[in-house]
Amino acid sequence: MKKLKVFLTLASLCVGGMAFAKEDTIRFGTNPEYPPFEFKTEAGEVTGFDIDIANAICAELQKKCVYVAQSFDSLIPNLRLKRFDAIISSMDITEERQKHVTFSEPYYLNPSVFVAMAGQFKSVDDFKTKEIGVLNGTTHQQYIKENFKEANIKNYPQYPNAMSDLEIGRVNVVFGDEVVVAEFIKRNNKLEVVGEQVNDPEYFGNGLAIAVLPKNTELLAEINGALKKIKEDGRYQTIYEKWFK
Q1: What is the dihedral of CA 144, 131, 138, 145, to 10 degrees?
Q2: CA neighbor of 26 nearest in space, from 65, 60, 76
Q3: pLDDT at 8
Q4: Domains of the chain
Q5: Tens digit of pLDDT for each residue in 6-21?
Q6: Tell me: the pLDDT tens digits for 126-182?
Q7: Angle at 136 between CA 197 and CA 83, to 5 degrees
Q8: Is residue 196 classed exposed, middle or buried when 0-12, 13-18 and 19+ CB atoms within 10 A define those classes?
Q9: To bridge 226 with a disulfide, which of 57, 94, 165, 217 should be the other Cys (CB 3.0-4.6 Å)?
């Protein structure tokens, strides 16, 4: 009987400890293939602008950040399965996504652009019937589907795959976030932006935000409060300048 009591006491402590640990941690789903927002270092650590923002939020809340790597199009389904608590992965606020998740206040506004091999196209009209690469499950994919109906859309799980195919001629153009495209252009001067920035508010005008389950109102309030604080005290600006200046 004593052994049973001891076992039950230890089990109770363990369960309590796990509950405390969970409350003390925010598990973020992310797609770490999207520099400079989120990517893996050579050592395999997740880093980037979004990750620094999440780390600052966790520091403000005195919690630990844990990152769960996923393909972009599986992030919302796995959040709904509660495999993590929130998503931070350069995710645009859209009406369609708001049917499934609730978004924090936006933490970044980012225009989109087309990139192609230098000298190949003079304007957007030149590739409306060509092959356009996009990241699967993104607002970029939706924008091309609805605005470039004659194009042959090629969907990719990660942007490095799309850019590699662009460089070897498997696609004619890649459409993505301006700062992400800029990273690839820095590495290959044979790439260039074609046309103007795309800021269509129906797809991109609401900014990037952190997603949580609609019922998780407490976590949403904590994240919004921490975001407000890091913007007010200068931590956000320091992170921004680290990645974009």
Answers
A1: 30
A2: 65
A3: 36
A4: 2-108+205-244 (3.40.190.10), 112-198 (3.40.190.10)
A5: 333 334 334 333 333 4
A6: 999 999 999 998 989 999 999 999 999 999 998 889 999 999 999 999 999 888 888
A7: 120
A8: exposed
A9: 57
